[in-house]
Amino acid sequence: MTFQNKAKIPNMPSGNFVKYLIYGFLFLMIFSILTKSVFVTIPPGHRGVLFERFGGGVVTDKVYEEGFNIVAPWNSMDIYDVRINEGFEKMDVLSKNGLSIAVELSYRYKPTSNDLGLLHKNIGKGYVERIIKPEIRSATREVIGKYLPEELYSTKRESIQDEIYQTTKKAIEAKFVELDAVLIRSVELPTTLKDAIEQKLKEEQLSFQYEFKLDRERKEAERKIIEAQAKADANKILNASLTDKILQDKGIEATLELSKSPNSKVVIVGGGDGGLPLILNN
């Protein structure tokens, strides 16, 4: 008996099912694209700039606030961080006498919120690399080039720091960026120069201490001279005012006071020098 095996052919999905599957896939793709481009959420501390593809490009007169925003699918939204951020810059600069100095700076900045459209149109999101860093480098080289290394290392550091800040701020504020501060984090001088400056500062400090001590001793000597002169003048005035009559009266007053004491004594009137009373104790 002969058996003929027949292969089982699985049922193929109908044409309508495949069509709905394709439609569903396309719908999910379109929905995903629209969710990212149409429904835009701007996080805290950020602002949005709208680009209208068919309406004139970047919108410069309106800035979109943080929160939920709806954007037409043919437009796009660029988001900027408008909080204060910090950047760092390290460079080698030449001092007034031509020595190379390694300086590390930190700077705090933020874009001007109301001018984000102009910033985006004229400069773009790379404004830190295009605007801030070049101006920081230029101002630092210009300012430090007017000072000696020891001034940067010690006495003039704060004024140099402020001068760099003012120069940079003036240069970038017209480009829609605000500068909050510039700080000199560290200054690295050649080892031999650093040692020489430190030794000079120590000697200056010792000189100040010696000068202080000398000044104190001079003032103490002046005080003693004034005190001695005052005593001499007082004695001179007192001696000039003491006559024989006054001394005699003072002696009588003292004798009378002593005679009032409870101790036994004999008072001889006129028995002492100059006719003063004479007191004899028993």
Description:
- With 282 residues, the protein is α+β, with helices and mostly antiparallel strands.
- The protein has 7 helices and 10 strands.
- The strands form 4 sheets. The protein has a 3-stranded antiparallel sheet.
- A hairpin with a 4-residue loop joins strand 2 (46-52) and strand 3 (57-58).
- Helix 3 (127-144) crosses helix 5 (157-172).
- The longest helix is centred in the last third of the chain and has 51 residues, at 191-241.
- The chain is elongated, with a radius of gyration of 48 Å.
- The N and C termini lie far apart (177 Å).
- The model is unreliable at 1-7 (pLDDT under 50).
What's the gist of this structure?
With 282 residues, this protein is of the alpha+beta class. The chain contains 7 helices and 10 strands.
Name the features:
10 strands, 49% helix, 282 residues, 4 domains, single chain, 3-stranded antiparallel sheet, alpha+beta, Tetrahydropterin Synthase, Chain A
- Number of E strands: 10
Share of helix, binned = 40-55%
Q: What integer is the average pLDDT?
A: 79
Task: Give the terminus-to-terminus CA distance.
Answer: 177 Å
What is the ordering of alpha helices and beta strands? HEEEEEEEHHHHEHHEE
Given as residue ranges, the uncertain stretches (5+ residues, pLDDT < 50) are 1-7
**Sheet having the most strands:** 3 strands, antiparallel
CATH class division of the largest domain: Alpha Beta
Tally of helical segments? 7
